[in-house]
Give the backbone structure.
Amino acid sequence: ENRIFSGIQPTGNLTLGNYLGAIRNWAALQDDYECIYCLVDLHAITLFQNPEELRRNTREVAAGLLACGIDPKKHILFNQSQNQDHAELAWIFNCVARMGWLNRMTQFKEKAGKNRENASTGLFVYPNLMAADILAYKATHVPVGEDQKQHLELARDIAAKFNNDWEKPDFFPLTEPLILGAATRVMSLRDGTKKMSKSDPSDMSRINMTDGPDAIAQKIRKAKTDPEALPSEAEGLEGRPEAQNLVNIYAALRGVDVETALGDVGGKQFSEFKPILSDVAVSVLGPIGEEMQRLLQDVAEIDRILCEGSERSRAITNPILREVREVVGFVQ
Ligand code: ATP
Ligand code: MG
């Protein structure tokens, strides 16, 4: 039996990276799989969040997922803190994962920055909570962007060690990542070597899903590029991270591969290509942004959807957690 789980942090505006790397695929998978999608607010507070902003972002990200076609009737959409099983299993995994494994995680190094002594301990054990999110459902597949591949490998290591330590060979599945589409790692518009992120301090580094046509056009116009025209073959993008990124975005938005995209825009100067890219971005994001604004008029309805989703999520995880307590040896 296949079961999909994935999460997104309510840490700010949804970006084009979140859309192309994750949410668009989440919507498509609903036709063929049982899907559980989670707003991971416990993950968000690994970096301090203003409480009012956290609540607002949670509702906004929920509206974003709904606007992209996530169906909360057929599938499950909820916020993580409303299901305590995630946190309980994460504690058990804190006792399974090894310090050495977590020391290798590149996201921690990036997010902690230079002053590692001052990072929260939650930020360090973030991947253990992520493993708990997935394994509390015994999920088999996790659709994510390229940046989460390392954390998924850690989740497999945790599952394997748990199964081995307590001699339950098939207890937790070894979950597979699903990294789908032409833009699995969308880069910052200001720096082609840095991932586009919703928590980046520079708003010019990303396209937000709520940006209007003028903001999108301006950000793409100002996006960093090199002086050469676009190549006609994909190999010509090697060593040109900014050009590569913009062409990947263009291809992914149009739903074609990079070769096909270059068949249309190869040979063009950026001055000619950028307005074409803006038009495609506006035509995809415009309707989603408008639907988000409409949904956000009724916050009570969003809260109701999340509450009901959390109830249905607990119906899946409660029996799995009972089994886990039994395996570990807790009296219950
Ligand atoms: P933050 O800066 O707070 O970490 P984020 O933009 O990285 O925010 P997450 O909530 O960490 O977003 O990740 C949600 C999903 O979006 C994950 O599946 C992640 O792999 C995917 N994702 C995030 N950024 C990108 C990107 N630039 N390109 C492709 N996928 C991305
Ligand atoms: Mg992230």
Remarks:
- The two ends are 29 Å apart (CA to CA).
- Residues 197 surround magnesium ion (ligand 2) (CB under 6 Å).
- Strands lie at 3-8, 34-39, 76-79, 141-143, 176-178.
- The longest helix spans residues 299-328.
